[in-house]
């Protein structure tokens, strides 16, 4: 046994794995992170096309298929296009920061891992806990949106699902004859999450291949929507472009544009999901920036085109519905295309759930390897080489949430949680440029610190646009997370770090 090992054995006597950690700001070195990537049991099977498709699959979902109508009819009106541009610009700045980190640190975990390398363990835990709001609740939100289109499509085919089993508990459901019933449980939303979980357990390669096909289908349908409906745009539907404010913040006017940006930010969530699959990328230094920035650019162009056409063919006042794109195409008289829209939404939202749940389990995998979560979240299936226990547990929780919670509550929590993560990533780029200027950066964020500062400011502005109740729920969630960290995760993480250090020294 070496003398260094003896020192660490002595330290073990005084600082057992249950002892108090030295610092809340313990950081992981980039060298250690790269070694973890090389030792990873996850299968490297994703190229730039798969990664870009993962990003598009996660981005194009409930935001464009459902929240477009909600944001236009309740907050921004035709100026929703400006709201989308604000969100897109903020995401572009944040995406550049993500791309730098993803190329430097090709390890599963996304912003959680980046924070661990830059600002320390306590911030890494906060972001990891915060990302549960983004990925787990985002998957629940998408599942609820999927359920709405699925139920509508089944109704078109003459198949009726009991209304009480298509809405969260207590929600009021209006029937075709005008009567109402109270929802019990959104069964279609819960079941589709179970199906997605099963596919993710089978394997990343199969999941990515399925996602690529689904992404192609829903992207082409949105392009066809724009092409077919563009000639039906009427100028009067876009006037006034910014409706006058109705007397309180967020109800049209410029504050409504900001509120609309906060709501529509949900539509852009997903490009960061690419970075969670870094350990399964064939060439992460080259392919991660391509996947992140490529998916964001493609989706931004599609979104602005779809929103402009939709708001031009239907008055924004008529779009507070579960299927705004179908309502839009019906207004053109091209009713034959309405079922195509619904089928596209069904397949498209399925692919979004696939990517969001994949991202969540990979973050849990990273946090488990660091000791911040129990070991079962890092267990890898011997045959499929996927974090199967994490996927099953996560899928169960997401399924229950999708069945019980309303879509508006889920969407707002996802948006504010993700915006906070983006702010911290932007700040992390600035910090690491100062603390580690000599580190290799295969991709460099341009115009630092301007780009990160603008990204953080725009994301903060969108957070301000969200309701105060959403801020309160975020603070409660973060408080619960800090209690878990100090009661369990902090000490367990110290034990894992010490065990690794002792093993490496002895070898």
Give a verbal description of the structure:
By secondary structure, the protein is an all-alpha fold. The chain has one domain: Amino acid/polyamine transporter I, CATH 1.20.1740. Helix content is 68%, strand content 1%. The protein contains 17 helices and two strands. It has helices at 3-14, 30-39, 48-59, 62-76, 80-104, 111-118, 121-156, 187-202, 204-229, 253-268, 284-313, 324-331, 338-369, 388-404, 407-435, 450-464, 468-506; strands spanning 172-174, 180-182. A two-stranded antiparallel ribbon has the order 1-2. α7 crosses α8 and α7 (121-156) crosses α17 (468-506). The longest helix has 39 residues, at 468-506. The protein is globular and about 65 Å long. 52% of the residues are buried.
Topology summary:
Blueprint: H1 3-14, H2 30-39, H3 48-59, H4 62-76, H5 80-104, H6 111-118, H7 121-156, E1 172-174, E2 180-182, H8 187-202, H9 204-229, H10 253-268, H11 284-313, H12 324-331, H13 338-369, H14 388-404, H15 407-435, H16 450-464, H17 468-506
Antiparallel strand pairs: 1-2
Helix pairs in contact: 1-17, 3-9, 3-11, 3-13, 4-10, 5-10, 5-11, 5-15, 5-16, 6-7, 6-15, 7-8, 7-13, 7-14, 7-15, 7-17, 8-13, 8-14, 9-11, 9-13, 10-15, 10-16, 12-13, 13-14, 15-16, 15-17
């Amino acid at each position: 046994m070496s003398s260094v090992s003896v020192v660490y054995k002595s330290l073990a006597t005084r600082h057992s794995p249950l002892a108090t950690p030295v610092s809340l700001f313990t950081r992981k070195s980039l060298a250690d992170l790269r070694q973890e990537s090389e030792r990873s049991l996850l299968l490297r099977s994703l190229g730039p096309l798969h990664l870009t498709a993962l990003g598009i699959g996660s981005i194009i979902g409930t935001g464009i298929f459902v929240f477009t109508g909600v944001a236009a009819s309740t907050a921004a009106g035709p100026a929703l296009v400006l709201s989308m541009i604000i969100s897109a610009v903020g995401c572009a700045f944040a995406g550049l920061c993500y791309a730098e980190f993803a190329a430097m640190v090709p390890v599963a975990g996304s912003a959680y891992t980046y924070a661990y390398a830059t600002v320390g363990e306590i911030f890494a835990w906060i972001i990891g806990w915060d990302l549960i709001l983004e990925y787990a609740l985002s998957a629940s939100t998408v599942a609820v949106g999927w359920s709405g289109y699925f139920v509508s499509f089944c109704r078109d085919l003459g198949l009726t699902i009991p209304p009480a089993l298509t809405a969260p508990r207590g929600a009021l459901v209006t029937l075709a004859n005008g009567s109402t019933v109270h929802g019990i449980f959104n069964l279609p939303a819960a079941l589709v999450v179970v199906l997605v979980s099963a596919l993710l357990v089978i394997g990343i390669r199969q999941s990515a291949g399925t996602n690529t096909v689904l992404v192609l289908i829903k992207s082409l349908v949105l392009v066809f929507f724009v092409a077919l409906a563009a000639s039906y745009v009427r100028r009067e539907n876009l006037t006034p472009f910014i409706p006058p404010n109705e007397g309180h913040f967020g109800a049209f006017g410029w504050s409504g544009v900001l509120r609309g940006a906060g709501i529509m930010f949900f539509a852009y969530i997903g490009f960061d999901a690419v970075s969670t699959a870094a350990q399964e990328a064939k060439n992460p230094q080259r392919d991660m920036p391509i996947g992140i920035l490529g998916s964001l650019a493609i989706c931004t162009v599609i979104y602005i085109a779809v929103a402009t056409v939709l708001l031009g063919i239907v008055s924004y006042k008529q779009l507070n519905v579960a299927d705004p794109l179908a309502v839009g195409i019906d207004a053109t008289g091209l009713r034959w295309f309405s079922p195509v829209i619904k089928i596209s939404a069904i397949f498209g939202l399925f692919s979004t759930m696939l990517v969001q749940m994949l991202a969540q389990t990979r973050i849990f995998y990273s946090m488990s390897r660091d000791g911040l979560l129990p070991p079962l979240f890092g267990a890898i299936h011997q045959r499929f080489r996927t974090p199967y226990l994490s996927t099953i547990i996560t899928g169960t929780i997401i399924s229950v949430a999708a069945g019980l919670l309303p879509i508006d509550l889920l969407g707002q929590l996802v948006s504010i949680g993700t915006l906070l993560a983006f702010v911290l990533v932007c700040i992390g780029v600035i910090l690491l440029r100062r603390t580690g200027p000599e580190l290799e950066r295969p991709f460099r964020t341009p115009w630092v610190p301007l780009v990160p500062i603008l990204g953080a400011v725009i994301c903060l502005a969108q957070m301000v646009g969200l309701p105060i109740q959403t801020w309160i729920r975020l603070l409660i969630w973060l408080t619960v997370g800090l209690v878990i960290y100090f009661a369990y995760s902090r000490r367990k993480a110290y034990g894992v770090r010490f065990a690794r250090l002792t093993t490496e020294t002895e070898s």
